[in-house]
Amino acid sequence: MTIIETVPRSPAAHEQSPQVRTAIPVRHDEVGQRRDLRSVPLDDAFNVVGAVAAGIAVATLLFGWLTPMTGFIGWLIISFIAFLGIYAVLSSLRADRLTVSERIMTALFYSAGAILLGALVFVLGYTVVRGVPALINPNFFVETMKLAGPLEPLSVGGIAHAIVGTLIQISIALVITIPLGITTAVFLNEIGGRFAQFVRTISDAMTALPSIVAGLFIYAAIVTLVTHQRSGFAAALAISVMMLPIIIRASDVVLRLVPNNLREASYALGTTRWRTVWHVVLPTSRSGLVTAVILGTARGIGETSPVLLTSGVTAEMNLNPFSGPMISLPLQVFDFVKSPEPNMIARGFGAAATLVLLVLALFLVARLIGGRGPGQLSDRQRRAVAAASARDLGRIEDAAARTRRAQPSASASPEPTPSNEENPS
User: What segments bear the compositional bias annotation Low complexity (predicted)?
Assistant: First the structure.
């Protein structure tokens, strides 16, 4: 970076021009040392490693020799507190107070991320490990529980009917909630007004709606009055009630992030509000809308209580969501783990692991569909754009060549008219 030095003005010059308040900087060719903001300094890395080792040693001495404290969780807490204190002392030897505070906060942020990641890995690992006895059997994914009892071995029966029921119910819920939720979010942002404020308040309040209340509402309004039986469609409606506020709220936030100058540029070109929303606002916020749908799907696909009240429990395959009970994976997990039999509990953990893998697969598909931000093109799209540009360039050059051939050459001068002296009449 260039070092700039201001030149002070003399009192005489200041008296001559009292209105001038800006000093002209003098630029030097010296360049200061650049700071590396990405890599970790070597001394800081040594401080972290030393503080971790010292914190573990202090906690071990306290729990094993000096105090009667016991317990692994307490040992972890004391180790972490000792690590922060020792790291602050080591950092203060070569840094000022502000740098020490910054390093301590960085350590806290990294620790919070590590704790969150560790909790997620523990939950997934525990579920998969407990469900391995059921997951290693191929029949677990292709058979139903129609001919399998509580005492049957894991080589008999499966969760194929629950997987199909989950896919059918979540598909119906997505068909209902995606257009309704995104349209409502567009209304809240593009139209506005008092009614829009009322709708936003209701959608915000429904995000905290207990799932059992949604199940009771669908049971009273649909099962009792309309269908008179539990079905997959009723379960999909209950799931839609839980998903819709999430999608509306997340889509509303995403659409607010679209810059207004894009809308103004579209209106300046003479287009309508509908075409602006369809061709400018929605494509710009596509990745954010996909994230909103993912959040809603994650909320709805794991619901158990509304499905328990509206879909019913069955051990057979049911492909008709409008007739008869249709079980889903969360409800199947609940039905398995409440049994005292070890094989049924293993099936329950296997179904839970299958549900987690199914959610991850749906997330990957959603990311592939709309994960790219506005203006980010894939390799195929870049090749298509380059080919279209080449075609446009060739068409423009051909049009220019035809125009030049059609017009007479400017360099050719007309033949001179003979004078009267050379051609007397």
Answer: 406-425
What letter represents residue 174's amino acid?
L
**Which residue pairs from 28-31 have beta carbons closer than 8 angstroms and sit at least 24 positions apart in sequence?**
28/2, 28/3, 28/4, 29/2, 30/2, 30/3, 31/1, 31/2, 31/3
Q: What is the DSSP letter of 34?
A: P
CATH class of 160-370: mainly alpha
Distance (Å, whole) CA 92 – CA 408: 83
C-beta of residue 355 within 8 angstroms of C-beta of residue 330: yes
Where are the domains positioned within the chain? 42-133, 160-370
User: What is the C-alpha separation between 372 and 369, in angstroms, rounded?
Assistant: 8
Helix axes of 342-370 and 97-135: crossing angle, nearest 10 degrees: 120
The torsion angle over the Cα atoms of residues 282, 287, 291 and 293, rounded to 10 degrees, is: 40
Instruction: Report residue 330 CA to chain centroid gap.
Output: 23
pLDDT at residue 3, rounded to an integer: 44
Q: Output the DSSP codes for 380-418.
A: HHHHHHHHHHHHHHHHHHHHHHHHHHHSPPSSPPPPPPP
Q: What is the CA radius of gyration of the chain?
A: 35
Calculate what percentage of the chain has a pLDDT beyond 90: 21
Q: For residue 38, give the 3-state DSSP assignment.
A: coil
Q: How many C-alpha atoms does 366 have within 13 Å on its Cβ side? A: 21
Angle between the N-to-C axes of helices 160-186 and 329-337, in degrees from 0 to 180, rounded to the nearest 10: 130
pLDDT confidence band for 182 (50 / 70 / 90): very high
pLDDT tier, 364 (very low <50, low <70, confident <90, very high otherwise): confident
| pTM for the predicted model, two decimal places | 0.70
3-state DSSP assignment of residue 115: helix
Please, which pLDDT band fits residue 175 given cuts at 50, 70 and 90? very high
In the prediction, which pLDDT does 424 show?
Answer: 46
* Tokens matching residue 260: 């207004």
Written in H, E and C, the secondary structure of 84-115 is HHHHHHHHHCCCCHHHHHHHHHHHHHHHHHHH
